[in-house]
Design brief:
The chain is an alpha/beta fold. It contains 9 helices and 16 strands. Helix 2 packs parallel to helix 3, helix 3 crosses helix 8 and helix 6 packs across helix 8. The structure holds zinc ion (ZN).
């Protein structure tokens, strides 16, 4: 009986602790939240076919000599072309930026925002746009994981999925049949289909090839880098190697959070300038890969610049905070940052599956938010404003420690 009572007491304590975190935002949800009777429809977002069609149309209408459109790989299962869109040369003294979206198929709004920006860069003669084109090289991969972006139906509504749809086949790499897959080959949380989390498939050694000689590197835990087992990661790597960007931007989504313990506004965006610890070293082939201070400082300047742009005037996008600290050398951001690129991660609220969807209205707002962030980044490099920012702003002024919250209904 006594034991039962202390168990009960412990439960009450756990509940009251979580209640204090959840109570405020739950009592005045500032949405938009999707309502229970509202059906989740994803057709308004670009399918891989729509993306291709739109890219061809933009290319046709682009002003002469502005835009190059390349196929840099094919998706693992449906063999969709993976497109790179290029403005400016790799061989230049201008700052070089690589923007990548939808490495996770159910995280789409960065693709929508990038396509709006690509259209502007290809077609507009606005002075700010021509100034960007003259002073910045910017390349995009919009929708790195088209297989994951294909809609499927569930009992709860439509969904896309995080992973690709590739089946682990050791023979493809010349490996013994019983070779165990990397830890990031796993079932999707909604569809239960097996596939790879492409964003754990990266290694700082950019010539890494999976084969009999490197099978010992197949990772068993998230602190270890990946092995480029997916054609999607290989496509991203090819673009990174060709461009050698000063800045790499990766666009994602996450669940609902509030800004901080002291600010219960619903987070519209989380950002981060660092996804690998300063003392993490990955050694391969006699080279040590590690973060360097100069690119980390530029990462903090870029993240601060976007944060400030989203606070300005009557921006509806002010509820921005820093993403939790992580140490993930196997992500695209992690591996590329260990190769001297500054980085920025976008984590917009909500995913394109029934448990993360936030509705049509929010999709429009969050796409616009990412557009503003990306556009301001290009403008900031073109004018040089970004280099004027004190990197300490990032650590001192951007809110941190967002508690996760559930739906208020
Ligand atoms: Zn993601």
């Amino acid at each position: 009986m006594r034991r039962m009572f202390s168990l009960f007491l412990a439960l009450v304590m756990v509940m009251s602790v979580s209640m204090t975190v959840f109570a405020n935002p739950q009592s005045k949800p500032n949405g938009p939240w999707i309502q229970p009777e509202q059906e989740v429809k994803l057709e308004s977002l670009m399918s891989p076919e729509d993306l291709e069609k739109n890219l061809m149309q933009i290319k046709d209408r682009a002003r002469p000599d502005r835009m190059e459109l390349d196929v840099v790989g094919y998706s693992a299962t449906y063999e969709y072309p993976i497109y790179a869109v290029k403005f400016g040369e790799a061989d230049t003294d201008n700052p070089k930026i690589f923007i990548q979206t939808q490495i996770h198929g159910d995280e789409q709004l960065g693709t929508e925002a990038s396509m709006d920006l690509i259209q502007q860069l290809a077609m507009s003669n606005n002075k700010d746009i021509t100034n960007i084109l003259d002073n910045v090289t910017v390349w995009f991969i919009p929708m790195l994981n088209p297989d994951g972006a294909v809609i499927f139906e569930t009992e709860q509504g439509q969904s896309k999925q995080r992973q690709n749809l590739q089946v682990w086949d050791p023979a493809e790499y010349g490996l013994a049949e019983d070779t165990q897959a990397p830890w990031y080959y796993r079932p999707d949380s909604v569809s239960r289909e097996m596939g790879f989390d492409v964003n754990r498939d990266f290694h700082p050694y950019l010539d890494f090839e999976l084969g009999p000689d490197t099978a010992a590197y197949i990772p068993r835990r998230s602190s270890e880098p990946g092995v480029y087992a997916t054609p999607e990661a290989l496509a991203s790597r090819a673009v990174f190697k060709e461009l050698q960007p000063d800045l790499f931007i990766d666009h994602h989504h996450r669940y609902s959070n509030i800004v901080s313990e002291d600010d219960d506004r619903l987070n519209t965006l989380q950002i981060i300038a660092q996804v690998v610890d300063e003392d993490t070293v990955v050694s391969f082939g006699g080279t040590d890969y590690q973060l360097d201070e100069e690119s980390l400082n530029l990462s903090k300047q870029v993240n601060s610049h976007v944060y400030q742009a989203l606070q300005r005037g009557n921006s509806p996008f002010g509820a921005v905070s820093r993403y939790p600290e992580v140490n993930l050398p196997g992500t695209a951001l992690g591996s590329y940052s260990m190769n001297g690129a500054a980085i920025m991660l976008y984590e917009t609220r909500g995913q394109q599956h029934p448990y993360g969807h936030t509705g049509q209205k929010a999709n429009g707002q969050y796409t616009q938010q990412s557009y503003v962030g990306l556009y301001e980044t290009l403008r900031g490099f073109a004018t040089g404003e970004i280099y004027e920012i004190d990197p300490a702003f990032y650590d001192e002024e951007i809110p941190y420690g967002s508690p996760r919250i559930g739906r208020p209904n």
